[in-house]
Amino acid sequence: MSGPTAKTIGFMPRRADISRADFRTYYETRHAVLAVPLFPFRRYRRNHLADQAIEPGFDCISEFWVGSLEKIGELMAGEVGDTMRTDERNFLDQPNILAVRAEPVATGSDSAGSLALLISEGGDAAALTEAARKADAGLDLLSPLDERASPCDAILRFYGSLPALPEGWRVDRQIEVIPCETDPAQLRG
User: Average pLDDT of each block of 10 consecutive residues along the chain (189 residues)?
Assistant: First the structure.
């Protein structure tokens, strides 16, 4: 990835009348395929929940790396956004989609299938970043893009056992995901 890169994460819930398996199939074979030529993604990964029994309020954590959030906003305000919103109605619970800004501060375990959604209880972000780096874990610090609160303050991606967390951080939820990343050769960014 050349030049500055911004990252956002979308917590994507399925429509109530669609199974998680059908949601994943539609997302991977229709929606992601539709999005790739329309957006200047530098990276694009969908992390589908592996456990069919849990209901955390979302079914996929989508990660978008782009050169400019402003450019994405412009695209979403026009025909591209109309196209995507029309397709979303086929499988997503649109009112409950939540996008947040992500600051990748540790990039280890980039493709691991274990995620921990972390809550800060006065915890120091620098101490958490250091703990993630020592454990070779990936870490994104999250912040809202609008008035809605993020469901967590950070996402830790890791292999094996959950790394020790510094004081002031707790695990809200640990989930196993099936990462699906678009081949970088297909991306425009």
Answer: 84 97 98 96 96 94 95 95 97 97 92 95 98 96 94 96 97 96 89
